[in-house]
Amino acid sequence: MDDHIAVLPYYRVKREVTGLAQEIEKNARTMTLYSDRIVTKYREFLITEVFDMSFRRMGDEGGFFYLHTSIGVFPYMVEIDPEPFIQTFHQVAIARLK
């Protein structure tokens, strides 16, 4: 059963230099918010481990989304405004405090 609450697409860029050319590979990934956790491709954070989220726009093509956790800050590159995802996270976090 998929009980996700919100989804945020993000991507990772892999650069590889071959000879005189540089190849850039963009890998699309998804961050998923559940009522008790946030899941990325390689990590899973309990909601209780996440302190906050922030976003810094970089030019016209998205920016960096930051996940502030008890074990550090994790940056993710996004192309869309993550504000709806952040607001939903805050609603989930507040509901868990009640």
Tell me about this structure.
The structure is a single chain. The protein has about 100 residues and is an alpha+beta fold. The protein has a single domain, classed as Pleckstrin-homology domain (PH domain)/Phosphotyrosine-binding domain (PTB) (PH-domain like), CATH 2.30.29.30. About 15% of the residues lie in helices and about 55% in strands. The chain has a four-stranded antiparallel sheet. A three-stranded antiparallel sheet has the order 5-6-7, with helices on one face. The radius of gyration is 15 Å and the shape is elongated.
Compile the SSE list and pairings:
Blueprint lengths: L5 E13 L2 E13 L3 E3 L4 E3 L3 E8 L5 E7 L2 E7 L4 H15 L1
Antiparallel strand pairs: 1-2, 2-3, 3-4, 5-6, 6-7
